Amino acid sequence: MIGAGMAGLAAALRLAEARVAVTLYEAGPQAGGRCRSYFDASVGCRIDNGNHLMIAGNTAIMSYLRAIGAADSLIGPPETLYPFLDLKTGERWTLRPNRGRVPWWFWSASRRVPGSKAGDYLRALRLRRAPREATVTQVLDARSPLFRRFWQPLAVAALNTEAQLGSASLLGHLFAESFGRGGAACRPLVPRVGLSESLVDPALAKLGDLGASVRFGTRLRALAEDGARVVSLDFDGETVTLGAEDRVVLAVTAPVAGRLVPGLTVPDAFRAILNAHYRVAAPADAPLFVGLVGGTAEWVFRKQEVLSVTVSAADQLMDSPAEELAPLLWRDVVRAYDLPAEQAMPAWQVVKERRATFAATPAQLARRPATETRWPNLALAGDWIDTGLPATIEGAIRSGFAAAAAMRRPPAQNT
Ligand SMILES: Cc1cc2nc3c(=O)[nH]c(=O)nc-3n(C[C@H](O)[C@H](O)[C@H](O)COP(=O)(O)OP(=O)(O)OC[C@H]3O[C@@H](n4cnc5c(N)ncnc54)[C@H](O)[C@@H]3O)c2cc1C
């Protein structure tokens, strides 16, 4: 297993559970990849590299959490609630989809976006029928009142791509898997403590229990093949020769896989995500997160010791100095959580992930490869594999499960 992000951990877990001997090689000093927690000296506490929102209907995440004994490590409101604030008008509302599959909440003014009508939401059906090359704004009317307060924030957050360029059919698929399965499937979930505490540390412990070995600081530099199969792996200063029974799952990022695997087409355009963390404890009864429209911040999350901002598809902010971004975003945080206007900005950190995810455009989706490769002993995993989902934890874990399944099939079936 090469790469200990969510995809690599998920694949390793499935294989180790099946009593396959697993060695996990990770280039970095810790596991989790783009989904991890660490101590930040500026803020003075542990933070997540980025705020990650999951939903109760993420079936692969739930299966993974159960397998590593961390099913109760995510928290969320008892029912499906998405609180929003319009920073331009000061108006607040809470999206409250009903639990079941029949979406009667569309007809309930107190559960939907103010000023919207039931028919506005039914336009989601157009996304399902959208041609592969269509973008979100080619299918949904960007001038409609619901667009700015519903489609736009959800599309940008889900796709990490501007609605003008993001794939309509991918968003449609995602909505079918979430809203289409009823409000209960959309119940938002976040880690009680942190990403590593929920998704990474328990997985490493479980892998240890199952006898898998994990080697940090071990970067795969090249792999050699003989036309029929992958025959060796070249780590810095160490060559691992593969036996006839040995198989490799490459669970690295798309650019790294593109460099390592001859002739592999991978997504090659990316979008940034900006996170800003502020050391302030909001009241424990305040919402776990607030969606914002009309400001710079898009979502603010309440963590144990920090309030954290997310801005998706944030490429235009990447070159702004952190010293400018921190006060700009802090203004939105103060409004989102009704903090005293005079409250001074606390200790902060700005985290810029320039290549947070691949751009979910129709052209990039066409570049996503399948799990299997032309070498029967090499499978691919990662959020950039053709999972049918955007680059998410759910997609990464599904890709890992699929790679593990492919590696357990007899070689003849892999071709
Ligand atoms: C800021 C941010 C916010 C996000 N928000 C959300 C969210 O709200 N909800 C959600 O579901 N998803 C979210 N995501 C996406 C989610 O984090 C990713 O989809 C997921 O973590 C990808 O996992 P992965 O295993 O595919 O890749 P990665 O996490 O990138 O893992 C790849 C691993 O391979 C290692 N590696 C690379 N090259 C080599 C090599 N040559 N040899 C050995 N190891 C190597 C890397 O060090 C890394 O550990 C967010 C991402 C970011 C960055």
Polypeptide structure, described:
It is globular, with a radius of gyration of 22 Å. Helices cover about 30% and strands about 20% of the residues. A seven-stranded mixed sheet has the order 7-6-15-16-17-14-18, with helices on both faces. Strands 4-8-5 form a three-stranded antiparallel sheet. It has a three-stranded antiparallel sheet with strand order 10-11-12, with no helix packed on it. With about 425 residues, the chain is of the alpha+beta class. Helix 1 (about 5-15) packs parallel to helix 8, helix 1 (about 5-15) runs parallel beside helix 12 and helix 2 packs across helix 12. The mean pLDDT is about 95. The longest helix has 16 residues, at about 395-410. Bound molecules: flavin-adenine dinucleotide. Flavin-adenine dinucleotide binds next to helix 1, strand 14, strand 18 and helix 12.
Quickly count the helices.
12
Mean pLDDT: 95
**Main sheet strand line-up:** 7-6-15-16-17-14-18
Which range best describes the helical content: under 10%, 10-25%, 25-40%, 40-55%, 55-70% or over 70%? 25-40%
Quick recap:
With 415 residues, the protein is an alpha+beta fold.
Features:
19 strands; 415 residues; globular; alpha+beta; 21% strand
Give me the secondary-structure topology.
Layout: H1 6-17, E1 23-25, E2 37-40, E3 45-48, E4 54-55, H2 59-67, E5 74-75, E6 82-86, E7 92-95, H3 118-122, H4 124-128, H5 136-139, H6 145-159, H7 168-177, E8 188-191, H8 195-209, E9 213-215, E10 220-225, E11 230-235, E12 238-241, E13 248-250, H9 254-260, E14 270-278, E15 289-293, E16 299-302, E17 307-312, H10 322-336, E18 348-358, H11 362-365, E19 378-380, H12 393-408
Parallel strand pairs: 1-9, 6-15, 13-19
Antiparallel strand pairs: 2-3, 4-8, 5-8, 6-7, 10-11, 11-12, 14-17, 14-18, 15-16, 16-17
